[in-house]
Amino acid sequence: MDNRPIGVFDSGVGGLTVVSEIIKGLPNESIIYFGDTARFPYGCKSPDELQRFTFEIIDFLREEGIKLVVIACNSASSAALEVAQKHFDIPIIGVIEPVARAAVLATRARKVGVIGTQATISSGAYARAIHLLDVGVQVCSQACPELADFVERGEIVGPEVKRVVRWYLSPLISAGVDSLILGCTHYPLLTGVIQKAVGDEVRLISSAKEAARELKELLAMRGSFGEGESIPFYRFISSGDEARFLELGERFLGREINAVERVSLKEIILPRGGG
Predict the structure, then answer these.
(1) pLDDT band for position 53 (50/70/90)?
(2) Residue 124 CA neighbour count, 13 Å, CB half
(3) Residue 101 backbone dihedrals phi, psi, to 5 degrees
(4) Distance CA 20, CA 191 (A)
(5) Is 73 among the residues known to form the active site?
(6) What is d(CA 35, CA 26) in angstroms, rounded to the nearest whole number?
(7) CB-based contacts of 82, cutoff 8 Å, min separation 6
(8) Is residue 264 predicted with pLDDT exceeding 90?
(9) Alpha helices for the chain (secondary structure H)
(10) Cα separation of 104 and 250, whole Å?
(11) Among 47, 96, 133, 195, which lies 20 to 30 A Cα-Cα from 83?
(12) Confidence class of residue 83 from pLDDT cuts 50, 70 and 90?
C-alpha cells in the first residue's frame, strides 16, 4: 500500500476529465492536479517546449511527494513521455498507448480516426502506437485546433460548435472510420456533439477513461493502491487565474472544487529545494 498522492497534469483544466475517471475507479487515491493554464494551449507549442514544460511540472510535483505521474495531456504525452520516463525515477504514464490499444480492440473495419491538437496530430504518436499493435489498421488523423478553445471558453453546445465539429470530422466520416479517438482531454465535454456528427455506429474512445484504466492496472501491478481506511484528498493547482480555473474546472470534473491554489511559473521552474 502507498498513500502518497497521484500527480496529474495538463495544459489547462481538460485533464480534470482524467481526474474524474480516476476518482470513479480509484476512490481511495489522493490526487494533486496541476493545470498549466498560464501557458495554455499546448497544442501549438514545439516538441522542445513541451518537453521543457513537462520536466518543470514533474519536478514540481515530485517536490509535493507524489508516487507517480499521469501526463493527462495528449500534446505533452506525444512529445515528452518517453524522455521523461528515461529521466525521472518515478513511474510516468501518458494517455496515448492506452487509447491506441482500446481503439485497435474496438475497430471492426480496421479504420480508426484520431482527432487532437496540432502538436498531437503532427507527432504521429497515435499512428505509431496503433501500428505497433496492428500494422494493418488504417489511421485517419485530423487536427482540430479550435475545439479545445471552445471548451475552455465553456462553449460546448450551439450552432457554431456543431458547424466546426462537422467540418473537422467530415474527412474521417468519408474515410469510413468506425472508431474515433478523442485525442485531447478537452473533447469528452464535446461527446454529444461529436457522436451526433459521426453517428451512433462509430465508437468514441476517450483518453480520460483509458488513462484511468491504465493507471489502475499499474497500481495493481506495483501493489501501490492507497489504503481503504485513509481519507483521500484532492489538491488543485493552477499556474494562472484561480477563479477561471475554478469556474471551468467544476464543469470538467463533474463535482465541486473547494479551493484552487496558485503557483507561479517561477516556482515551477525553480521548485523548492532547487537552485
Answers:
(1) very high
(2) 3
(3) -65, -45
(4) 15
(5) yes
(6) 21
(7) none
(8) no
(9) 16-25, 47-63, 74-87, 96-106, 118-123, 125-133, 147-152, 159-175, 191-198, 207-222, 242-253, 265-269
(10) 32
(11) 133
(12) very high
Does an H or E element contain 274, and which? none
In angstroms, the CA 275 to CA 272 distance is 8
Cα dist from 48 to 72, 196, 201, 274, whole Å: 18, 37, 39, 22
Q: Identify the active-site residue in 44, 140, 144, 184.
A: 184
Check residue 199 and give its pLDDT. 96
pLDDT at residue 22 in the model = 96
Question: If DSSP codes are grouped into helix, strand and coil, which group holds residue 110?
Answer: coil
Out of 44, 73, 140, 144, pick the active-site residue.
Answer: 73
Structure-model confidence comparison of residues 87 and 225, the more confident one: 87
What pLDDT score does 1 carry? 85
44 is catalytic: no
Residue 142: what are its φ and ψ, rounded to 5°?
A: -145, 120
The number of helices, as runs of H, and strands, as runs of E, in the chain is 12, 10
When pLDDT is averaged across residues 233-237 and rounded to a whole number, the result is 97
Give backbone dihedrals phi and psi of 193, rounded to 5 degrees, phi first: -65, -45
Would you say residue 161 has pLDDT above 60?
A: yes
Q: Which domains does the chain have, with CATH numbers?
A: 6-94+210-269 (3.40.50.1860), 96-207 (3.40.50.1860)
